[in-house]
Design a protein that fits this description.
The protein is mainly α. Helix content is about 40%, strand content about 10%. It contains 4 helices and 2 strands. The protein has a two-stranded antiparallel sheet with strand order 1-2. The N and C termini lie far apart (about 30 Å). It binds zinc ion. Zinc ion binds next to α2 and α4.
Length: about 100
């Protein structure tokens, strides 16, 4: 199910560096929770694009947030997480499109 790129040592190194540099779950942090991250997630889904996979921005997530985010993305094309102000945290969310 996961892309073969995830099984390369190059990816494992990139993932490990992400977790070392950002040890806390970004989505939990946005909601005021402190949770240890275990997963390096692509902020913009790479969808098989090598450039995005290797050079795209990563965020650290815990397993719970990662699976919630993945389910949302597969269903809607974006996640429905919100920050403390109630704004969607996913740049792909329609509310955030065109802001950047
Ligand atoms: Zn989390």
């Amino acid at each position: 199910m996961s892309h073969p790129w995830y099984h390369t040592s190059r990816w494992r190194k990139r993932r490990a560096r992400q977790i070392v540099e950002h040890p806390l779950c970004a989505m939990c942090e946005q909601q005021g929770r402190v949770t240890a991250a275990t997963i390096a997630d692509h902020v913009v889904p790479h969808r098989g694009d090598a450039e995005k996979f290797w050079n795209g921005e990563l965020q650290s997530l815990c397993a719970t947030c990662h699976s919630a985010r993945k389910q949302m993305q597969e269903k809607h094309g974006y996640s429905q997480g919100c920050d403390v102000d109630g704004n969607p945290t996913d740049d792909q969310h329609p509310w955030n499109r065109g802001k950047k």
